[in-house]
Amino acid sequence: MIVRNWMSTKLVTIKKEASIQEAMALMKQQSIRHLPVLGEDDELLGWVTDADLRGVLIASMLEELTLEDVMIRKPFTAAPDTPLEEAARTLLEKRVGGLPVVQDGKLIGIITIVDILSAFITFLGLFTESSRLDVKVSGSANPLPELARIVKNRGGEIISICSLPDEEGEQFTYSIRLKKTDLKPIIADLEEHGIEVSSLVDL
User: Fold this and answer.
1) Distance of alpha carbon 187 from alpha carbon 150, whole angstroms
2) Total of domains in the chain
3) How far apart are CA 153 and CA 25, in angstroms?
4) Which of 53, 111, 142, 161 falls 20 to 30 Å from 98 in CA-CA distance?
5) Is a pLDDT exceeding 90 seen at residue 145?
6) Same structural domain for residues 78 and 134?
7) Is there a single domain that holds both residue 170 and residue 186?
8) Share of the chain above pLDDT 90, in %
9) Burial letters 129-151, b for 16+ CB under 10 A, else e
10) What is the reported pLDDT for 30?
11) Edge-to-edge strands of the sheet including 171-179?
């Protein structure tokens, strides 16, 4: 999954000469929290957020300020072919809500936390009718082939598998999402092979 496939291309932008009040009014009208600031040739010059603008609103009433005075001049950005995981890591580590997507200096899209959340929810199959099993497996051997075999033998079709080691690293919990199916025979087979089913969800 790459940024290009999930970014928004319906862009709302503003020029650097605009006032703080104009930018805030545009954000309110469009129900957005991020605003790319563009130059004369539509190159990305900066980035402002609603929090940035609220922070300078009173100052802008006392003196003439434009977006050029308050914008982030070198915002964190993504390229269209950036892996979605990398963009998500940047958003989390830098504590920002969105990234301008830039190609050859030109703004071509915006990727936000909501876009990435939507992508991962889709990837995990949460938008479709599905079943989920959480199983606990001990030991260092890779249990995935055995888990997949048991599920397949009982007619299950795996959508995704996520793993999470416990604090001591000796036991793993695997969350297996399946296309909606009867879980009882799968659970019985797993337990027969010594695999503990810790929880299940049947949506």
Assistant:
1) 9
2) 2
3) 59
4) 161
5) no
6) no
7) yes
8) 38
9) ebbbbbbebeeeeebeeebeebb
10) 93
11) 158-165, 171-179, 130-138, 196-202
